[in-house]
Design brief:
Mean pLDDT: 93
Distance between the termini: 36 Å
Shape: globular
Largest sheet: 3 strands, parallel
Strand order of the largest sheet: 2-1-3
Radius of gyration: 21 Å
Helix content: 55-70%
Strand content: under 5%
């Protein structure tokens, strides 16, 4: 995947990364700080992938590409953390400043996530489904604010370049619409899903989104959406998906799309499950590890 990302990025004058600005990153890019030293200060979810990305970005910089970290929501959030660490509290945030809505969005999503974790330990399947939906709604509100802030920041910066590559995860689909609204109509925008038509993978487009992402996107574009069965089936499938998906970095061969393969496999399995299937399975896998959950779900689907 990194090779494909690099090929796509090389076609553009500037690359906007989905990260808050960081002076350590600039030092790593310029070579005054080693990649290993830079990564040692991060809590990277996929350290091997991050390492390869750093070297690839260095190469792009040497080719004359402008690489800019643009993620205002996270920058503001980091500033809030510093503000609180200095002894201040939420009451000290100005209600008319952007920090306050960012604080509220993050607080509400975090509360809903903690509530989901508490509920998922021993509560009923139905209560857990409701907790999933509450978190997805608050997460969707957070993404709406985050994508809006990022689109505004990038629209201003983009005017300096002839072409720009914007890094964004698939959950940020709203960002594309926001950019269309912020940019002049003469600017051409093109969506690029790097996983589409990946080598050796059959029809990945059909399985682009995991069930939890589908639910969150539903609430992102339709905040007041209420069609209980559709919401419930996506929430239920997301519970099973979360037990199946790999939790650690798969590093056996980064060129063969290991995480995408795992995601597609898990999406394919959960798409076959009804609400009753998920109810039956969740009671059996809620306390299982990934390997055990796979065995249980595969046996269930093979009946």
């Amino acid at each position: 995947m990194i090779t494909r990302i690099g090929r796509a990025m090389r076609k553009h004058q500037a690359i906007f990364l989905e990260e808050p600005a960081d002076s350590d990153f600039d030092q790593m890019l310029s070579g005054t700080r080693t990649v290993e030293d830079y990564l040692s200060g991060l809590d990277a979810e996929y350290p091997e992938f991050s390492r390869e990305m750093c070297y690839m970005l260095r190469d792009l910089k040497e080719r004359g590409k402008k690489i800019i970290q643009v993620e205002p929501y996270l920058e503001i959030l980091l500033g809030i953390h510093v503000h609180f660490a200095e002894g201040n509290g939420p009451a000290d945030l100005a209600r008319d400043a952007i920090q306050y809505p960012v604080y509220l969005a993050e607080r509400n999503a975090t509360r809903a996530l903690i509530s989901f974790y508490d509920t998922s330990i021993n509560a009923s399947f139905e209560d857990t489904i409701e907790a999933v939906k509450r978190f997805a709604r608050t997460d969707a509100a957070r993404f709406r604010l985050r994508d809006s802030l990022r689109a505004q920041a990038m629209a201003s910066l983009a005017q300096e370049f002839s072409s720009v590559y914007v890094e964004a995860g698939v959950i940020h689909y709203l960002l594309w619409r926001n950019l269309r609204q912020e940019l002049d109509t003469s600017v051409r925008l093109k969506l690029l899903f790097l996983a589409d038509d990946a080598d050796g993978l059959a029809s990945p487009r059909k399985y682009r989104y995991a069930p939890g992402d589908k639910l969150t996107l539903l609430y992102i574009f339709h905040p007041s959406y209420s069609e209980t069965h559709r919401e419930n089936i996506l929430a239920a499938r997301s519970l099973i998906y979360s037990k199946l998906i790999a939790k650690n970095e798969l590093t056996e061969d980064l060129t063969s799309w290991p995480h995408l393969r795992d995601e597609l496999k898990c999406i394919h399995m959960t798409n076959r499950l009804s609400l009753d299937d998920c109810r039956n399975l969740y009671l059996r896998v809620r306390h299982s590890d990934t390997r055990q959950a796979h065995a249980v779900v595969q046996a269930y689907l093979s009946r």
